[in-house]
Amino acid sequence: MSAVFLGVRHHSPACARLVERTVAELRPAQVLIEGPAEMNGRLDELLLGHELPVAVFSHYRDGQRAATSWAPLCDYSPEWVALRAGRAAGAQVRFIDLPAWHPAFAERTNRYADAEARYAEATERLCRKFAVDSSDALWDRLFEVEPDSGLAERLDAYFALVRGDAEADAGDRARESYMAAWVRAAVAAAGDRPVLVVTGGFHQPALRALTDSGARDGADGDGWERGADGWPVVPAPPDGAMAGSFLVPYSFRRLDAFAGYQSGMPSPGYYQQVWEAGPEAAADGLLRVVVERLRARKYPVSTSDLIAARSLAEGLTALRGHPSPARIDVLDGLAGALITDDLDRPLPWTGRGTLTAGAHPAVVEMVAACGGDRTGRLHPRTPAPPLVHDVTAQLAGLALDGGPEATYRLDLTDATDLERSRVLHRLRVLGVPGQVRTAGPTHGVDAVFTERWEAQSVLGREAALVEAGAYGATLSEAAAVALTERTRSGTAEADGPAGALFDAVLCGMGGLSEQLLEELSSCVRELQASGPLGEILATALGLWRHDRVFGMARGPLLATVIDGATEQLLWLLEGARGSSGVDFPRLRAVVAVRDAVLHAPELLSVTREVAAGIARRIAEDPQAPIDVRGAAFGLARSLGRVPGAPGASGDPARVVRTVARAGADALGDWLAGLFALARDEVTGAAGNDDGRGTDGAAESLIDVLDGLVSALSDEEFLSGLPALRQAFTFFPPRERDRIAARLLERRGVRGSSRSLLRTTADPLLIARARALEESVSRLLARYELDAAP
Asked: In whole angstroms, what is the distance from residue 582 CA to residue 669 CA?
């Protein structure tokens, strides 16, 4: 006997019924299924009696690549029906696809991701032919609502058409060659009994051709190794790699195309009803559930609205020539009866993709009702990765298994509470739900020594733990690997590496894992953005200087990160070019460099003298961004005041006059950079009580600024006011009060300085109002309409 090929669409009730019927009629000796071949020795585990949906979760990691993927199964998945019905019929059942770690699955997180993108042209032609909007509506029209008679022939014709227009990539060709090897081996082993092959329809034409050509040639020239039993050998991961597969609970939400699922049918809750009770009952159920959901959310839906929706759905079913109602008939009927507003976007079921923000509330509830809220559950005897057992033991040993309502208040100065905090943080960085931290330290210099953790939904906890097992066998190992990968992939994020560093400290990585430190050091050398690099330096330096809880203060482990970040930042800042404006993250990075040079010189390969010289060069570079020039001037002054270092760079008053020639905007941006770094040196905060700095710079700079601003024309002042105002936001209230007092003193005005700091309205609003008045006055004068009555 030869093989019988059934090409299916993943998660299609019609295809699942066809598979079940074919197994019953054919009574095959072998049932071969598209699925991970490494699970063949564990099929009994799949049939333990789980509550579907579940998925085979596979993971792989070596020195160069990490990958995870899922093979989801629900009650109406043709693959699941083939497995269950094949076993019941006494057939030998096998998965025949390559393991998920294989390079053929590179960049694919879902084994059953449809190839629809590759045969879009063919489906678009069919959509036009049958006057439907989307491939999902086309599928319903051709298969889900049509009678089961002739279904196999229609499927063959459909997949032959769409595959004929598509070009399989190298990964699909490798998978098809491997699956064909299994088919030929099964045909040889079955003798005169049939072999049933159930795969995605995209692969079916190629598998049939490969099997037929192999039979004609009389040889298995596919290059796949055979075992002593004649079956293809399952490829083993390379030496040193970590790979495995485990069952995890899945959910209808993760199966739904409207939530971003890449394969199969949308609206799994609806098609579950189609599978269980047929399309008529599913249509009635959807109408009822949508109305219930809308009423629960106080959306007005009357009985007449429900009658209208039902009538519209029935009318559309008849108009479109459907033998029974399709999903789109019911949804369009509901939309027509319940939505009276103009919609600014197409209805989501007219295409494929996630539900966008701002969708009409009735549309949101329709999509949610179609999706369903079912979550699978594994049988208690299902094997779990070592991480699950390690977490269970740690939670019990530290009294952290207090149930879904547990709240924990932890004293981080207590050794036991500190270890409990570390366990909770490790679960957090692995994305395991159950507890959320609502209070605690947020950075390396945060003087907070307590934490509060509150219970959150544990939905998906079991699956998250199993999936986290891909990172390691123990909780500490898994968290360290997860943070290392996050550091490697997050170099472009604003706080990615810095956040990973502090999270590693919170997790208690034994003073930081060596691999994570290596990754951070590499990240520091590769980062080309001063903002994120400054966050890393500030975090590492804060921990090195001030930590009294986590054991990081004055330790050698952060020295490489601090040194590398300081050197890289000086290089980036000297090469910075750009237009006007203030880059606050970049200014914070300069502050971090200053603090490193001043407070951790023993860690740095860059001396204070070298850093001061770089700062002076940047301050005098006309091509450098103006805010960086101001910050570099402040940096040079800060470093110049260190005993033994060169003198301060230049006179602030002279430099301010020079910068002011470029305009009030440039002056404001330059001052912002200066004040971010060295306001103590230029305002006298570190000097005498009379407001004069130790070298007289504070008084002279304030006087110079007052003179420059007073000399501005009204138009120049209004143009530069936002930048000037932004610069002075670096001063806390007490320092602003001292500056205001000095300005009153210069004018011989007696009174409280607060009169200059408080206005009856926003100063920018006052400035805009004055500009408007002047504009009106000029317009009146232009047309000689400003004469007094």
From this structure: 6
Query: Taking the mean position of all CA atoms in its chain, how far away is CA 381?
Result: 33
pTM above 0.85, yes or no: no
What's the rounded Cα separation, in Å, for the pair 566 and 583?
18
Integer Cα distance of 432 and 422 in angstroms: 14
Q: What is the mean pLDDT of each run of 10 residues along the chain (789 residues)?
A: 88 94 94 93 92 91 82 93 95 93 78 62 84 88 89 91 75 90 92 92 88 60 80 89 89 78 76 93 91 88 89 92 92 88 79 75 88 91 92 92 83 92 94 92 80 88 90 91 80 64 84 73 82 88 84 78 91 84 90 93 92 91 90 87 45 76 83 82 49 47 78 75 78 79 78 65 69 78 69
Q: Which helix (H) or strand (E) holds 437?
A: strand 435-439
Q: Cα angle at 484 between 481 and 487, to 5 degrees? A: 150
Bond from prior residue into 53 cis (ω within 30 degrees of 0) = yes
| Residue 583 to residue 461: CA distance in whole angstroms | 41
Bridge partners for 59 per DSSP:
68, 244
CA 325 to chain CA centroid, Å, is: 38
Cβ distance 258 to 271 under 8 Å? no
Alpha-carbon distance of 689 to 692, in angstroms, equals: 7
Contact 512, 504 (CB under 8 A): yes
Q: Sheet harboring 435-439: ordered strands across? A: 408-411, 450-455, 435-439
Helices (H) and strands (E) in the chain, counts: 32, 10
The Cα 271–Cα 282 span in angstroms is 8
**CB of 676 within 8 A of CB of 730?**
yes
| Other C-beta atoms lying within 10 Å of the C-beta of residue 602 | 6
Helix ranges restricted to H, 448-509: 461-468, 475-489, 496-507
CA-only gyration radius of the chain, Å:
35
Tokens of 127: 């959509």
Of the candidates 491, 546, 552, 499, the one whose C-alpha atom is nearest the C-alpha of residue 524 is: 491
Q: Sign (positive/negative) of CA torsion 502, 503, 506, 509?
A: negative
